[in-house]
Amino acid sequence: MYKIVLFGLLLSQCYGFSNFVKKITKNPFRQFFAEKRFKPVNEEKTMTITHENELFNHLNHSLYAQIGSNPKYIENSSYSWFEGDGMIHAVLFKDNEITYQNKWIQTDRLQFEDKIGKKVYLYLAEFLDQNGIVKFIISLIKQYLRLIPGVKGTANTALLNTNEKLFALHEGDLPYELNVHYDSFNISTKGRIHIPNLYSTTAHPIKDIKRSKIYLCNYNNYDFVKGVFHYNAFDNNMNFLEQKNISLINNGMIHSTSFTGNKIIIPDMPMKFDALRIFKKKMPLYFDKKHGVTRFGIFDVNSLKNPDWYYFKDNFFVFHFSESYETRDEFIIYACVIKNHDIEGAFVKLPEDKMNESKGVLKEIRLNKRSRRGVVLENEELENLDLGFPHNIDFPLSSKLQRGLIYCAIFDTENTYIRGFLRIHTNSFPYAKPDIFLFEEGTYGVAEPQPVVIQDKEYLITFIEENGKNYISLVDVAEKKIEKIEISARIPPGFHSIHYYV
User: Fold this and answer.
1) 320 half-sphere exposure, CB direction, 13 A CA radius
2) Helix, strand, coil percent values for the chain (each to nearest 5)
3) Alpha-carbon span 243 to 274, nearest angstrom
4) Spatial distance between the Cα atoms of 82 and 196, rounded to a whole number of angstroms
5) Of 77, 253, 335, 465, which alpha carbon lies 20 to 30 A from 185's?
């Protein structure tokens, strides 16, 4: 760390430290994701609502919750949606009542800023500011002198329920366990779990029902010096069992993986990290489409042998995978694929000229066991969807009712709204016809939904906003109908969600 600080100070002089200081007050802060619908909620609420909706009564004694980014301290700085303090919005279904509650996750980072009473930690989006280098150097010096704790996790990305325990996840940190009291509904933060020599876990855990294990893998996101994938196995009580380190050719981000039931799909994609980019007012993370290499590894959780690697002709990036399975000759994987990911634009707001090439589309990925090559197959209708607005397809979810049926959210990329959902059968995927449900004008999805089955029929449970009001909703994509109960609280857009019975 000492060498990094000295190197940063030297370069800051070369790039004109005094000029950066003079420009601080002139900096055009980027706060798209802290305004309008994204404006943070500034208070925690609990409310109970009595209803007479029979459909929701079938969810009796269950909980639906979403988690997302809700920064408590923004001040005069650029801000990206991915970095705000975690806040959970939850609904407990009990008899003819629903109880809603929202709570900040009391991370070490948030508690320290609460103690100081202001923003302390640097947002990655601030690297794009005119004075980004100055802020970066000051932040390094403060951490080196131990004026601020070296914490970074915001617990804002996803939720994990296992053995009557609930955890808030963030891929830059270890999970935070939450206390949930269901009788008098209340959520509080128990604290961050501690595992020696483990710095972080994924925000997309894999539950292995057959082996009674949970795989909370991660990548080298603590120094990014070299690419490493860490296979981490836990039991259902979140006791750490085993780890294996796997070398990667890329040193960037792996947001999620997929699982066949016996093998983990490890995506080694050219999302790379270069700290020196900040001196050009660019993000240290970037997608190297021109010079990178994309490959997928097949890792057997029984043998724990080094993975077999399958290479692709073209580069791409995947944030979210859906189901995958193995045949005699192939591995078949479904994921929302981005051909050319503009991570800098995504952090502050994707520019219009980058929307089309940065959009995600559900695709079928096949890995041939004989040739060790991978191919990406497209669905013509999904590729050529004309919805009347620029869109992105993400959050692929496997049906609980029909194998081979996948749901996805449809985002309006210009306004960053969920405008509807689609479902598609993966049998003969290139020729399958998607079933699309677009919401009426003024209605928007708030976060990832979850499939629920009620009387042999499948719905997506989620929060939606309709003409400025918020609702807990059951969306019937097939029939294009929505059942909803109003919640008198503002629920900003979030990330991932969970539904389980208590």
Assistant:
1) 23
2) 15, 40, 45
3) 27
4) 27
5) 465
